[in-house]
């Protein structure tokens, strides 16, 4: 009997020893597996951080190329496919020299039915891509609708203009354009309307704030609040670091901060400058696939003046309001001119 007891005790001891040895072997294996997973996650995180840093570097270095696109892919540079003559308009090429010496130019266009000798002028500031020849279908309709000649400014680096585009440079071009066009013998320099679409809207805001008493009216269409805010819309992964109040806004060199500029300008509504701001029409495409319509609404709200008006085109996208909502669009623009 004792032999059986001794054998059982020995077996139990062996089993207990085996179990203890099994636990002692599994824990190191588990820790090793966890360490391996942690190492992989750290490597993955490092790779993602490096990729994000590379993308940020590329965006920083190439932001001007991303923002300013003077040449549409597949089309030759420094040439115009069309001239206003191809769209049944008289025109004159007007050379412009900016304050920094860069030579640009523009086309002063006139409908063949418009015979006023010394007429009001609408200076059109274009979007970011292509050149002024791509705006001729719009310019033709504008000339046919409003009691004004139309001047299409070719930004530096665009079309036949010299130089390289930048915010500072384009603002110099726009100011030189206003000065030059107002001195043309067939233009009424006291009746200047600024019309800007998208990027051109930011140019128009800058010029209206700089020359409030020289500008008769301003039209803004589908423009943005700032480039830093647009960067987060175009590149969603940048939203946590670039945008209003974000830490890396300094990476954005081309700022075009129209909203901040307007808020600063209208900080004191009772000031003479605020009261001098010209009447403003804001045109909004509700289906804009590039600039969120709410940006235009915020710009409109920041213009603290009774002389403003906003119109939304329900089905229009970024570029097509003037054709998709043709009757509403052009009647709105014409009525604004005639007020």
Automatic annotation (TrEMBL):
<keyword id="KW-0812">Transmembrane</keyword>
<dbReference type="GO" id="GO:0008236">
    <property type="term" value="F:serine-type peptidase activity"/>
</dbReference>
<dbReference type="Pfam" id="PF00326">
    <property type="entry name" value="Peptidase_S9"/>
</dbReference>
<protein>
    <submittedName>
        <fullName>Bem46 protein, variant</fullName>
    </submittedName>
</protein>
<keyword id="KW-0472">Membrane</keyword>
<dbReference type="InterPro" id="IPR029058">
    <property type="entry name" value="AB_hydrolase_fold"/>
</dbReference>
<feature type="domain" description="Peptidase S9 prolyl oligopeptidase catalytic">
    <location>
        <begin position="173"/>
        <end position="337"/>
    </location>
</feature>
<dbReference type="GO" id="GO:0008474">
    <property type="term" value="F:palmitoyl-(protein) hydrolase activity"/>
</dbReference>
<dbReference type="GO" id="GO:0006508">
    <property type="term" value="P:proteolysis"/>
</dbReference>
<dbReference type="InterPro" id="IPR001375">
    <property type="entry name" value="Peptidase_S9_cat"/>
</dbReference>
<dbReference type="GO" id="GO:0016020">
    <property type="term" value="C:membrane"/>
</dbReference>
<feature type="transmembrane region" description="Helical">
    <location>
        <begin position="40"/>
        <end position="62"/>
    </location>
</feature>
<keyword id="KW-1133">Transmembrane helix</keyword>
